[in-house]
Design goal:
Elements (H helix, E strand, L loop, with lengths): L1 H10 L1 H8 L4 H18 L19 H12 L7 E5 L10 H6 L3 E6 L2 H9 L2 H4 L2 E5 L7 H8 L7 E4 L5 H7 L7 E5 L10 E2 L8 H4 L10 H11 L1 E6 L5 E6 L11 H4 L22 H4 L5 E4 L4 E4 H4 L3
Parallel strand pairs: 1-2, 1-4, 2-3, 4-5
Antiparallel strand pairs: 5-8, 6-9, 7-8, 9-10
Helix pairs in contact: 1-2, 3-4
């Protein structure tokens, strides 16, 4: 019945507009997503994964990119599961559409106790095979967390978005080797430098600098780390915040992309003043706000101030 409805909606935009007035927002989003998935699959291999973007539960267009990749990577049934680190209350996440639309199993981890309790009280928690764990993730505990809470060690997809030690956590993970990895990067650090915030076990983006733009790592550092771990870089989302990697033995028809071609400069303006109010600073001025903060430079193998790395 669902496929029949989708064909009708695809053939008749007028009928779709009529049904919109009777359907809930969630149902509308899912039906539209189904139509977009069919369109994306019909286009075959894309030159740029951003062409596959659409949003249902992801913050930006990542739901579409993920659907595109899992269609080409062709994961075996036993690997249709995920790990997502940094989900808050999971109402907006990279893997929620995978859970609901594709019936994948998953483990989500977040440091917020109230957020994890919220997830466990949602209908989604009994309707689907989801495990939610409250923990502040560190280099020393990530593998133990995975070992303790995963029923499976072959993982289809890993997503890390913790606004801080993202590079160091992916580097530390040895227990699993997912076919697809999504990593948040800080586009303010550009495409030419291989840098990250120095590892600090209790790092907090809000506490580290009042502007909240001091966090994470550069795209180049992730591309180089991915190469060491056996992954090809395949692109970023159009907002310039998430980078995508596919394991080399699982690439299939997915096209690797160069760092230069795949880098997307973020245009969002989330900087704040000392009172926590948005300041809407844009361009290079965002980096100047944090010029006195340190970064670890992987090429020079030492910690330097941002103003010295970028000649600010």
């Amino acid at each position: 019945m669902k496929n029949f409805i989708l064909r009708l909606l695809h053939q008749s935009p007028k009928l779709y507009r009529l049904l919109r007035s009777y359907l809930s927002q969630d149902v509308q989003s899912h039906l539209l997503a189904k139509m977009l998935i069919n369109q994306i699959q019909g286009r075959g291999v894309l030159d740029d994964i951003q062409q596959a973007e659409f949003k249902v539960f992801s913050q930006f267009g990542d739901d579409g990119i993920i659907q595109y990749l899992i269609n080409l990577v062709k994961l075996p049934p036993e690997e249709r599961n995920f790990v997502e680190v940094g989900v808050e209350d999971y109402t907006e996440a990279n893997t929620r559409f995978l859970l609901v639309n594709n019936n994948w199993s998953g483990l989500v981890v977040d440091a917020g106790r109230e957020e994890i309790e919220f997830i466990k009280k949602e209908d989604i928690y009994w309707k689907y095979d989801l495990t939610a764990v409250c923990s502040f993730v560190t280099k020393s505990n990530i593998n133990n967390l995975l070992d303790r809470h995963l029923r499976y060690k072959k993982i289809g997809l890993l997503s890390i978005d913790i606004d801080g030690n993202d590079y160091w956590i992916w580097e530390a993970i040895t227990l699993i080797k997912p076919r697809i990895v999504i990593m948040e990067y800080n586009g303010l650090f550009g495409q030419e430098k291989s840098v990250s915030i120095p590892y600090q076990e209790d790092f907090s983006r809000i506490k580290a600098h009042y502007s909240t733009v001091y966090w994470g790592c550069s795209l180049k550092s992730l591309v180089e780390l991915g190469r060491k771990k056996g992954y090809h870089f395949v692109g970023t989302n159009s907002t310039g915040i998430n980078a995508y990697f596919v394991r080399k033995d699982s690439l299939g028809k997915v096209k690797p992309i160069s760092l230069k071609k795949g880098f997307t400069l973020p245009k969002y303006r989330e900087s704040r003043d000392r009172e926590g109010r948005l300041t809407f600073v844009s361009g290079e001025n965002r980096l100047k706000l944090i010029k006195s903060q340190p970064l670890y430079d992987f090429e020079k193998c030492k910690q330097l101030l941002i103003k010295n790395i970028y000649n600010l």
